[in-house]
Specification:
Length: 280
């Protein structure tokens, strides 16, 4: 096993000290803030101790089988809201109605896994009834920002020949704009219904929930002719767990505790490009 330690503010000395309990046979500096430790002790108590100390030091610690690289994968599948981008689009849309606090509370509970996602989305979208559709363009132009490291990560995986999928419980208004902007291969999201230039408070067709996200990853892998074990899946909320569960490498990005606990890689402090160090 290898141990990859990385933190935006971490020095090599700090990373070396965090690695010490795992007794690495050798270490390789990957960058000023990233260190790969090879042939480490990965006993459960060691892993727990290293990860706890790393978390306290604001460093991401990943234990991973030696030799894994981007070439082991064919697809990177990403959640959108709070993963590829920094915002929850529905919360920002609701802000245009003066309802951000109310909608954000429902969003947070759904992401923690405390509410059924489809039911919670239906409730949240209903609150948007009557809002001018132009508000969506304002959210995209004024508030939507890519997460740290997103463009670096995408450039690297695309250069390595991997396909990209953006699968979201959010809305096609945003995924349709991000697809050409970022050169993504596939996108799938919910469709907001509009009439006479205003939102009706309804979603057209089926809702992209946890099951549909998982099925989408499976469909795209089948189209590519590869098993889902050749997919890297990134997410932050409970509705991402099922698609993460069928992947070959699951990445929790600034994620809820229930997601971090089940992921292969947890990036709490690094950008999305932190996955590149893990697979270096």
């Amino acid at each position: 096993m290898n141990l990859v330690l990385q933190g935006p503010q971490a020095s090599q000395d700090v990373l070396q000290s965090l690695a010490a309990p795992a007794r690495p046979a050798r270490s390789v500096s990957l960058s000023s803030g990233a260190l790969r430790c090879e042939d480490v002790d990965a006993a459960a108590d060691v892993v727990e101790a290293v990860q706890a100390a790393a978390l306290a030091a604001q460093v991401d610690a990943t234990f991973i089988e030696a030799g894994r690289s981007l070439s082991d994968f064919s697809l990177v599948a990403m959640d959108m809201d709070s993963t590829l981008i920094t915002i929850e689009c529905i919360d920002e849309i609701a802000d245009m109605q003066g309802l951000k606090a109310q909608v954000s509370e429902i969003t947070e509970a759904a992401m923690r896994g405390e509410l059924d996602f489809a039911a919670s989305l239906t409730r949240r979208v209903a609150l948007l009834e009557g809002l001018e559709a132009s508000a969506l363009e304002r959210v995209y132009a004024e508030r939507l920002r890519l997460s740290p490291g997103a463009e670096t990560m995408l450039a690297a995986v695309q250069a390595a020949g991997l396909k990209t999928l953006l699968v979201s419980g959010g809305f096609t208004f945003f995924t349709d704009r991000l697809k050409p902007r970022l050169g993504l291969d596939y996108t799938h999201a919910n469709v907001l219904e509009t009439e006479n230039g205003r939102l009706t408070g309804r979603v057209l067709g089926g809702i992209v929930d946890a099951e549909e996200k998982m099925r989408t990853v499976q469909r795209v892998c089948a189209e590519l002719g590869v098993p889902t074990s050749r997919a890297i899946v990134m997410g932050d909320g409970a509705n991402d767990l099922k698609m993460m569960g069928v992947s070959g490498l699951s990445v929790a990005f600034r994620a809820k505790p229930v997601v971090r606990a089940q992921a292969d890689v947890a990036l709490n402090f690094s950008g999305l490009d932190g996955v590149l160090a893990v697979l270096a």
